[in-house]
Amino acid sequence: GKPTEPSTGKPTEPSTAKPTTAKTQGPTNTPAPTHPTDQNGCSSSPCMNGASCEPRRGLFMTQDGRDFDCTCPDEFEGDFCEKKKTDCNLVECPVFKCKEGVTLFTPPGECCPRCGEDCSAVRCANVEKCDDGSLPLVPPGRCCPQCPTPATPTPPPPAFCVYEGRRYPFGDFKTRNPCLHCSCMEEGVMCYSITCDVPECADNTQPIVKDGECCPSCPDKPDSMKLQVTGNLVNSMTGMGMPNVPVSLGRMEMGGGHTLMGMGNTDDMGYVTTLRTKEPLERGRDYFLYFSTEYSFEYVQYPFIQVFFRHTGQKDMYHFTV
Q: Are 284 and 314 in contact (CB under 8 A)?
């Protein structure tokens, strides 16, 4: 029902307080809390009037920054249980005695009826149709038919979201918390917590959480590294480097044959710069550098030069002399 003012007996207007304002009207004078942004919003006791607080788990909406829900007692409502429900059964309504021909009606959102208009002294305009083609209707408590009030067009929602003071376009985005996956949508920002599995690592090593990542992973093997083999291809007769020679890295397979691992070129001084490989090298495996050159000296041509080596796990400087 709707409460009445003791002095006048008139029904009071419903509270229009919002959860984010400090002037909340209700049974307590506690200001409405600001939206918490910590991972467990219940730690700041945001729920009011004896309500219980439950942190959200997994998927949750964060458009307002909340990651908790308030369970309100029966007589309260609102995001923070800050508003008292209106129970019309508890409202004592005044007795109205209307004129003859005047009917009682209860306005929308109110508990008590009141007298309508006295239609005996009212002349209505002749409205046959409304602008939208509909027929005019007589509202409760009124005398004359009326056309519906045109609805105010709703502005389109913004094409971005604001989260932690930053703007993000529609779609997935990263936050400062690597364990939180968020998406910007028309409804707001939706985030969910990432669930991690703990891997089993070899050689009794323990999983570690690397910088910028959420889930633990096994540490890199010390003997598994991208190819850092560097060296220079030198002509043994002149001592000069052989520039711009295509060079390939291959891995000798156990059953014969080879697998191409990476490609590059010697630089202007004949040095083999660092080659990027498809996968880390393995210690103890046989590899070879395959040079393709048309360099010739004293009528001896070396179109194909192969240099074999065994990876030792060190960033050694190799000197290739041909």
A: no
